[in-house]
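Exercise: predict the fold of this chain.
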Amino acid sequence: MIKTDIIIIGAGPTGLFTVFEAGLLKLKCHLIDALPQAGGQCSEIYPKKPIYDIPGFPEILAGDLTVNLLEQCKQFEPGFTLAERAEKIEKSDTGIFTVTTNKGTKHQAKVVAIAGGLGSFEPRKPQIENISFYEDKGIEYIIKDPEIYRNKKIVIAGGGDSALDWSIFLANINAEVTLVHRRNEFRGALDSVEKVRDLKNKNKIKIITPAEITKLNGKEKLTSIIITKDGEDTELAIDHFIPLFGLSPKLGPIANWGLDIEKNAIKVNTFDYQTNIPGIFAIGDVNTYPGKLKLILCGFHEATLMCQSAYRIINPGKKYVLKYTTVSGIDGFDGTRKEAPKSVVQAINK
């Protein structure tokens, strides 16, 4: 039996930052994740994808963000149960939750924070004949190592942020990128759309819209595709086809825990992101509320407010006075101060 203050289900960015915020309140955390490593989608699906909306980082790779979050929270010594899925939850008469994994590992705490991101997920695949035959033979739905695409002929299909961001990234490592979308308008961030169009004007990216990939060719591996535009077919020789139509998320066992669910997300209040079950919170992409934005930085905000309420549940009647880390220090609250790097001090003093 693993006992802790807060059980965090999901070891993605939001779950990892929760460890830090809880640690500032002297609360211990234990994380459960079905993946074999921490980081969630950032480490499993797109570790080399650049992220642009993390405060203080004009650009950071998803994998590097995971490394930084792990470094930030390690001083509070979180526990990890990895490669196991949270399967069942029970609440005792004394208000203690027991979370059991699919491998029978039991965890106990007064507070549970569900930070499961999109839950379990599968890529949405285009309806093209024989597409399964070419999977891992020229077709990839997830980019883990962009270096394999350097100097290759790539076709990316899609009109959202992933399609735009990867088109930009791969074009900048000398891949020959063609972006195909069934509409003229893209759904991604305006800044990304502008960057893609700028790269097109510089002949670094080809854009074909409105169009669709309708046929795949190749005996042992993918060698070419058929692009249909305005009723006419064009064959294009390529090395890789990457359909990026998003993920189809599923909550998995969490959907059976008696929580209020709306469109595959857990409903929470906006005071502290608590669910309909007192003591169970949902933070990050897994939750929903009016005005919800599925952004990592929003998950960080939600984790911060959640931890304040978690403190009151774990320490009933005990008053907590908020202290800024610049005043209290963060080195485990052991009475010592952690000095900022000299480069940071010099930058501040300029």
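Check your answer against the key: The chain has two domains: 2-121+247-345, 125-243.
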